[in-house]
Amino acid sequence: PAAAARRRRWRFPKVTALMRAAAGGHLAVVHRLVAAGADVDHGCAEFGPQGPVYRTALMEAVRADRPEVARALLDAGAAVDNRQPNNVDQETPLIAAAKVGSARMAALLLARGARADAQDVPNAGYDTGHTALMYAARGGHLEVVRLLARAGADLCVRTLEEDGGPPGGVPRGPGGG
């Protein structure tokens, strides 16, 4: 019984109704939940091999390429560069858009003030300060690369490993040194 309960928890990570609505593109439901007081920046964890990966409704909308939902969440006050405090990878919504290759999501987030040079935060060597530009280039997402370059992303930024910094160090950029 205990093992079965653990398997159920793994199969069905904890998510909010707002996160489900955002991922599914259910704009009317998103509006109703926000009007009823849903916290647009609340994060829930999925437990991956490296540890907890926290997602928000905005992250779910970005990953599912739902710009109308993302726009509604941003209009409702969702933080464009939100990082959940205990997240393993500390990726921003823009980094998520770059990873999935969504140029329209990247354009929306940049227009709303997302930092083009934000780096993911290293954790025990898991990530080492990669930017959205690095992920877009690695994935072959040329349109996203062009958007980020036009938005002023530093084409020469280096990861912490390339800079000789220790895994777990502080990323460069505003507030990071």
UniProtKB/TrEMBL annotation:
Q: Which GO terms describe its cellular component?
A: cytoplasm
Q: Which UniProt keywords apply?
A: ANK repeat, Repeat
Instruction: Indicate what this protein is called per its UniProt record.
Output: Ankyrin repeat domain-containing protein
One example of a Gene Ontology biological process annotation: innate immune response
Q: Where are the ANK repeats?
A: 13-41, 89-121, 128-160
User: Domain of life of the organism in this record?
Assistant: Eukaryota
Q: Does the keyword Repeat apply?
A: yes
Say which species the protein is native to: Heterosigma akashiwo (Chromophytic alga)
